[in-house]
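so my prof wants the structure for this chain in the tokens format not the other one, which i didnt know existed until like an hour ago. anyway here's the sequence
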Amino acid sequence: MTEITLEMVKQRAEADARTYGYYLNPDPKFLQSLLEGLKRNEERYGYPSCPCRLASGKFEIDRDIICPCDYRDPDVAEFGACYCALYVRKDLYEGKTEVKPVPERRPLEKQSKAYNAATTASEAKPATPTKEEAKPSGSKPKLWYCKQCGYVVFRDEPPYTCPICKAKKEMFAEIKTRIDFT
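here's what i got, hopefully its the right format
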């Protein structure tokens, strides 16, 4: 397995920011702490979960908070920064607007699942979850597609915004199949 370096994490975040017209937080110390958190989470869980939220260590539960999280785009659009302020709009980057706290968009149900999974785990388990571990209790993943661009995803709920075209959650429709994915 390739060692994850802080430079790799930073390059990935910078590339994603450029792709979507965002900037990384201009405060070097704060940015460094966020990047270190992403690196630590990727080493711990096998995926870069958001450094400002509690991750469970179970991919299916944490899918919505893998950086960049599902909530980043609506947060940046409305508040100028994502929840942890890793990604910011140009006006905040240039210091024309002050970074203000962003309210948590992650539903309480998902936060509770992460908290329960994290507190009941006897030890953090990195790497690939087993089929049983991958499914949160009561969860029924479905196929969803974006009616605007055709993006397809397999998860409990559609993403908050489409990662391809930025369509809102309401633009997703479930794809009915004869196959039971659970």
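also thought this was worth mentioning. The beta strands are 23-24, 87-88, 142-146, 152-155, 172-175.
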